[in-house]
Automatic annotation (TrEMBL):
Its main location: cytoplasm. It catalyses: RX + glutathione = an S-substituted glutathione + a halide anion + H(+). It comes from Hordeum vulgare subsp. vulgare. GO terms for molecular function: glutathione transferase activity. InterPro entries: Glutathione-S-Trfase_C-like (IPR010987), Glutathione-S-Trfase_C_sf (IPR036282), Glutathione_S-Trfase (IPR040079), Glutathione_S-Trfase_N (IPR004045), GST_C_Tau (IPR045074), Omega/Tau-like (IPR045073), Thioredoxin-like_sf (IPR036249). Residues 91-222 form the GST C-terminal domain. It is found in: Cytoplasm, Cytosol. One of its GO terms (biological process) is toxin catabolic process. The gene is LOC123445284. This is Glutathione S-transferase.
Length: 234
């Protein structure tokens, strides 16, 4: 596989959707790498030294040099291992559009997803689910525009925007299991829901998937920490 012997390491966690995003990109490019699981509740020296600004995963270490932030890492992987099929569109305008929607996912959709997790009552969770559904809705039109009527955002095969959004589908499923909520609703966004079903059946998604039970366990720890912080602030 491409990348063998080049000293590629990924600092991540099995539950991080952003680390999953990078794993997907590496898989699509056929890059071999060493997956180094990190403890986010007790961060190690390598992570702190590799990402001293944000102190979070994922970090890609290539030939001894760290690259931080998942979208930047995906673009780095796309450029360094250019021999495989490109993840970003070839057309400059299409690339700009893909980057816009990827940033939208991380800004609006992830925020809305975490807001559901932070909710402490059913009523509050219902309100935040409505906000999440509203955040997801524009991606239905984005899919139509980017896919050109084909199976994925990138067309016939998985690309940059597919992994940018697809990495979060496992957390959506964890929220459904925990609270019975559906973030990508087939009734409101049928084409996006159909895309999600296709994406989860790809080898790329299956290779990088986060175990739902691990996400649920981690999410429970986060909720306990947030509850303790709220109690301490009273």
């Amino acid at each position: 596989m491409a990348g063998e012997g080049e000293g590629v390491k990924l600092l991540g966690t099995v539950v991080s959707p952003f680390a999953v995003r990078v794993r997907m990109a590496l898989h699509l490019k056929g890059v071999s790498y060493e997956d180094l699981e990190q403890d986010l509740f007790d961060k190690g020296e390598l992570l702190l030294a590799s990402n001293p600004v944000h102190k979070k995963v994922p970090v890609l270490i290539h030939a001894g040099r760290p690259v931080c932030e998942s979208l930047a890492i995906v673009e780095y992987v796309d450029e360094v291992w250019a021999g495989a099929a490109s993840l970003l569109p070839a057309d400059p305008y299409d690339r700009a559009v893909a980057r816009f929607w990827a940033a939208y996912v991380d800004d609006k959709v992830v925020h809305a997803m975490l807001a559901i997790l932070r909710a402490t009552t059913k009523e509050e969770r219902a309100e935040r689910l409505d906000a999440a559904l509203a955040a997801v809705k524009p991606l239905e039109d984005a899919f139509d525009a980017c896919s050109g009527g084909k199976a994925f955002f990138a067309g016939d095969s998985v690309g940059y925007l597919d992994v940018a959004l697809g990495c979060h589908l496992f957390w959506f499923e964890a929220l459904r299991e925990m609270f019975g909520v559906t973030v990508v609703d087939a009734g409101r966004t049928p084409r996006l829901a159909a895309w999600a079903g296709r994406f989860l059946e790809t080898e790329t998604a299956k290779k990088a998937a986060s175990p739902i039970e691990s996400i649920v366990e981690y999410a429970g720890k986060l909720r306990a920490i947030w509850a303790a912080m709220a109690a301490a602030a009273k």
